Amino acid sequence: MTHTQKRIITNRIVMLLSTLSAIAGIGFLFWILSILVMNGVDALSWDIFTQEGAPPGYEESGLKHALIGQLMIVGVATIFGVPIGILAGTYLSEYAGKSKLGETIRDISDIMMSAPSIVIGAFVYAIVVAPMGHFSGWAGSIALTIIMIPIILRTTDDMLHLVSSTLREAAYALGAPKYKVITQVVYRGAKTGILTGVLLGVARVAGETAPLLFTSFNDNFLNTDMREPMASLTVTMYNYATSPYEDWQKLGWAAAFILSMFILSLNILGRLFLLKKKGN
Amino acid sequence: MATIIDVNEEKALEVKDFEFQYSGADETSIKKLTMPIAKNSITALIGPSGCGKTTLLRSFNRMHDLYPGNKYSGEIIFKDRNILTKNEDLINLRIQIGMIFQKPTAFPMSIFDNVAYGMRLQGIKNRTELQDRVEKALKDAAIFKEVKDRLKQDANGLSGGQQQRLCIARAIAVEPEVLLFDEPTSALDPISTSGIEELVVELREKVSIIIVTHNMQQAARVSDYTGFMYLGELIELGRTEELFVTPKEKLTEEYITGKFG
Question: Strand, helix or coil at A20?
């Protein structure tokens, strides 16, 4: 066998192995999605959106309570998390710069991002649930807010950094005060990037289960009082999927499908914005 | 020794014993510099890279204050006051002394909003007044014809040369007394460059202009006065035709004949 033949064969083996690995990696994603779609679509019905939870065996049962609970918990977390995250990112990029305090905040937020979410659930349990004496929707929102802030803070910081310093200088050169330079010029330049960060942050917390188990817990019926325990898609899915009743398991699949589609579309939307930004 | 001619006209700015040191630098970037800037004329600053010409230019609107730790001393006199003092109102100063940058700096907003930006900062809200002044600024910057049908469109859709003229329109819309140009054509093609040069010459009627340029031909073409800087010092300031034809300083002669630089 000549050297050339050897080289060609080695090349083919490496190419084959890496292609197979890539297919295996992405294959799992499609496997998961196809199982979800098969079981989820099958479990979908109008009742899912109009009926509340019911004991096993009842015909009229749905996920209305979990859908509304989920929207409220994530919605409130978004209302608090987005402005705090954006303002904190603004502080880092526009005011703190490379100062010691700025770098410390960046490091801490990186650590927060990789902290196990169940730890944050336990933390909120200790400081909110325990003193209140019971689980509540608020506690769930607080836990999700804490998880969301570092994600939005970091993307905002990064995206504001990408705005060129000459653009800032040009605004200052026209006599703009700093807050106007930030709100009127820098934010505009980083608009799509920040929006992407927000979408990805919301998508991330929408799929959290562990912190909600400790905080908002669950409710089998519709509850819109944030002071009381509240159902969420993730916890409902966990409860139903691990139950021995077939009709509950079916609802679990429906919850998994709806949640996945929601998060998938947020992610795709986020990526589309990024693509559009690059296109400019 | 430097040769600095006296400026006969009224002075727009006067630099006296100005020294500047960047944050963290061991040496001063500008050393004891004294220089008059004539009113309603064009003064070009030339010199090799790192000679301090851009540093000097950015001192006139206190751009260096955006970054902490820079040190300066001496005086820059503008309208009978030293603008280097602590209580100088920088917002007001920058309205009166505008700046055009090396790269076009169109804001991410519409063409109209770009030109109106400075006026809106000053609190002008009246729509007719804004419209009139935006139109006038665009006309004065010789770009109105090209953009009049798309004032609402994003300014980043314009070409580099158009964006630079838009930036000039934005700067003159607030009617400054001095305009600082920091190598305004170095990112542009030859045709856009000559357009900007013509514009600069026309603007002299209304404003005093200081222009930093790497291009000696450009300095010779547009300016009334030229200052040659080297290693943080002003070596020679003279009327442009005299400085380029009969330079008084040996260093100036060597630089304009291409012996170094």
Answer: helix
Token pair 């030339």 is found at B46
Residues making up chain B, counted from first to last: 261
B171 interfacial to chain A (CB closer than 8 Å): yes
Decide if B144 touches A, using CB distance below 8 A: no
- Measured on CA atoms in the order B86, B92, B98, B104, is the torsion positive or negative? positive
Structure tokens at B51: 């000679």
Query: How far lies A148's CA from each of B121, B126, B212, in Å?
Result: 35, 42, 48
- Quote the CA–CA distance of B223 and B200 in Å, as a whole number: 9
Q: Look at residue B2 and tell me whether its pLDDT is greater than 90.
A: no
Nearest CA distance, B5 vs chain A (angstrom): 30
Query: Helices marked H in chain A — which ranges?
Result: 3-43, 46-50, 64-90, 100-114, 117-124, 130-132, 137-162, 165-173, 178-180, 187-189, 191-206, 210-213, 233-241, 246-279
User: Coil, helix or strand for B14?
Assistant: strand
DSSP per-residue letters across B80-106: TEETTSTT--HHHHHHHEEEE-SS---
Question: Residue B121 and residue A172: Cβ atoms within 8 Å?
Answer: no
* pLDDT at residue A280, rounded to an integer: 47
Q: How far A233 CA sits from the closest chain B CA (Å)?
A: 40
Pick the CATH number of A50-279 from 3.40.630.30, 1.10.10.10, 1.10.3720.10, 3.40.50.720: 1.10.3720.10
pLDDT of A151 over the 90 cut: yes
What's the pLDDT tens digit per position in A153-208? 999 999 999 999 999 999 999 999 999 999 999 999 999 889 989 998 999 999 99
* Chain A hits for B66, Cβ within 8 Å: 168-169, 172
Which among B66, B95, B167, B168 is the top mutation candidate for probing chain A, defined by the most A β-carbons within 10 Å of its own β-carbon? B66
Answer whether A138's CB lies under 8 Å from A80's CB. no
- The pTM score is 0.84
- Cα A35 to Cα A27, A233, A274, distances in angstroms: 12, 18, 29
3-class SS of residue B18: strand
Strand B178-182 to B97-100 pairing: parallel
Q: pLDDT per residue over B51-93, tens digit each?
A: 999 999 999 999 999 998 999 999 999 999 999 999 999 999 9
- Furthest CA-CA distance within chain A: 78
Q: Which residue from B minimizes the CA distance to A165?
A: B105
Domain boundaries, chain A: 3-43, 50-279
